User: Which sequence fits this backbone?
């Protein structure tokens, strides 16, 4: 079971045409003043249209670096990243990123101006239409009443909503989310996951989502790519379309979580399946 | 021991709307007045003026220390006759020219510094060379190069504004968070648009601090330059007014001139810069 992933290429089974995003044997390195560190090693995966694709792995496995490479902030030292057959070379508004940090919203712009900012900066729309579209997406995330507020007056969850509205308003080819809810409290995080799924039902955007929480991966994603600890290599790709917020705590959900836990941390098969795991133990990093 | 872990009775409370206690109430008048910054600062000024008046009366020597009231009347006369306003006008025009050129150069230099490695080296070398050099020390050289007149004053003013502002602006640019930078690049912003739309607003607190320091440096350099060399340019400014009146032993007019220097400083600080801060960085929650 484990051997089959060695030297793999991305799973082609269900793809009918060329994938929306293809990451092919990508290795990433970053520099410190003393040495060059390999963050990921020959990672491949493909994302189809309307996928909610999750990159899941322990801290330091290079999943965020991988997302930033797709966004165009790092270039791979080997392999290729292609979006709709076109090589990714630089950051661009067709791959909007939602970051974890709250300071991703320029504090000198109101909520509405923040959502309009990429539309205007990338010259996608003229001012009036940008305003209309901004209000439309603010309505979708339920922040119409706060359109003229400044970001420093908002709560963490509201800031995350603004960042999502801002990214969706660009109608990007793919939406990149880098642990967007990790800085939120548990209740708000649950609410945001729910809202993100509702938005997806409505808009059907394509999502690449980085997380270190098994539970969040199962709830949010329809496919999960598991990365090994540093340097990140592909450990498995798992389907999770059948799970949602409603399945939290169910037996199947727990089994899937346990399986992922075992794959990530390479625990002995027999020992871990024998153990009666409490669900609370599985949430590795909240 | 077993008592501490015994189970207590659970309960639920149905909450009625809270009407018996007012949810918010006003502070007393005294406290509200004390919250007004301008009122507190005016009080300090009044106390200082009274102290001055008392000391001057005790001293009783108009030639060395005129009283506050004498100075005030000299100031009033100067303003009414238009002489003082005329001098202030001359000084401010020169000051603004030097200030604006200095700002433009500082932004050009810092933009270069955030874009290229060479620009960074250039900025750090130049600021460490010229920042410690007093602007007034360049005046003899400026007079030699640009002759007697406005241009040599503007040259030293630019020198006094440029390095302080460039240093602050560059420090502000370096402090802009990595996430905000990435967000800007994500929108496809590059080069000068990236600087204008992301870096400058994000670094505004430092830039404003630099503008304030630059303004103070420029103002004091100008007065000093006029005091020393103001006579040589056909019509002198405020520094020249002070210098001339000292020569003729009109000490009250000297004090009136100094008071105007201070008043303009206070006005610019409290009206221009405070307003700028209130409508920008304070409103955006970047400074409290």
Assistant:
């Amino acid at each position: 079971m484990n051997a089959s992933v060695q030297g793999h290429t991305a799973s082609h089974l269900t793809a009918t045409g060329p994938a929306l995003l293809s990451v092919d044997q990508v290795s990433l390195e970053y520099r410190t003043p003393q040495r060059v560190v390999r963050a990921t090693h020959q990672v491949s995966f493909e994302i189809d249209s309307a996928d909610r694709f999750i990159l899941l792995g322990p801290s330091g496995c290079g999943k965020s670096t991988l997302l930033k490479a797709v966004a165009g902030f790092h270039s791979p030292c080997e392999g290729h990243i292609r979006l709709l057959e076109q090589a990714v070379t630089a950051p661009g508004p067709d791959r909007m990123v939602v970051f974890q940090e709250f300071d991703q919203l320029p504090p000198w712009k109101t909520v509405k101006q923040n959502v309009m900012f990429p539309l205007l900066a990338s010259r996608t729309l003229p001012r009036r239409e940008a305003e209309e579209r901004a209000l439309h997406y603010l309505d979708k995330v339920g922040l119409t009443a706060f359109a003229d507020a400044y970001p420093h007056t908002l709560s963490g969850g509201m800031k995350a909503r603004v960042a999502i509205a801002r990214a969706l308003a660009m109608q990007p080819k793919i939406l990149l989310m880098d642990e967007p809810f990790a800085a939120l409290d548990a209740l708000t995080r649950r609410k945001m996951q729910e809202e993100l799924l509702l938005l997806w039902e409505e808009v059907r955007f394509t999502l690449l989502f980085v997380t270190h929480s098994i539970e969040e991966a199962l709830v949010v994603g329809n496919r999960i790519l598991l990365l090994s600890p540093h340097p990140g290599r592909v450990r498995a790709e798992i389907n999770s379309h059948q799970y949602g917020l409603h399945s939290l705590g169910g037996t199947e959900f727990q089994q899937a979580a346990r399986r992922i836990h075992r794959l990530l941390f390479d625990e002995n098969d027999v020992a871990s399946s024998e153990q009666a795991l409490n669900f609370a133990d599985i949430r590795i990093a909240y | 021991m077993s008592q501490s872990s015994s189970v207590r009775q659970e309960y639920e409370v149905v909450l009625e709307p809270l009407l018996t206690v007012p949810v918010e109430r006003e502070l007393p008048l005294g406290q509200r007045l004390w919250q007004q910054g301008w009122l507190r600062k005016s009080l300090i000024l009044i106390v200082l003026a009274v102290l001055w008046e008392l000391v001057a009366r005790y001293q009783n020597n108009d030639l060395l220390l005129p009283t506050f009231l004498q100075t005030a009347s000299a100031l009033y006369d100067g303003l009414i006759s238009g002489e003082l306003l005329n001098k202030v006008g001359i000084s401010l025009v020169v000051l603004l020219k030097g200030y604006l050129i200095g700002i433009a150069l500082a932004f050009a230099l810092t933009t270069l510094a955030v874009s290229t490695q060479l620009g960074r080296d250039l900025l750090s070398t130049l600021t460490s060379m010229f920042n410690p050099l007093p602007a007034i020390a360049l005046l003899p050289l400026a007079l030699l190069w640009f002759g007697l007149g406005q241009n040599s004053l503007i040259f030293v003013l630019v020198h006094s504004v440029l390095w302080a502002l460039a240093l602050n602006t560059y420090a502000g640019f370096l402090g802009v968070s990595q996430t905000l930078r990435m967000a800007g690049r994500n929108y496809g912003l590059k080069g000068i648009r990236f600087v204008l739309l992301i870096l400058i607003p994000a670094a505004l607190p430092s830039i404003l601090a630099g503008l304030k320091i630059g303004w103070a440096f420029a103002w004091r350099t100008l007065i000093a330059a006029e005091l020393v060399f103001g006579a040589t340019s056909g019509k002198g400014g405020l520094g020249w007014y002070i210098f001339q009146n000292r020569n003729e032993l009109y000490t009250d007019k000297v004090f009136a001139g100094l008071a105007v220097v201070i008043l303009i400083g206070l006005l610019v600080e409290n009206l221009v810069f405070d307003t700028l801060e209130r409508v920008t960085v304070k409103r955006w929650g970047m400074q409290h």
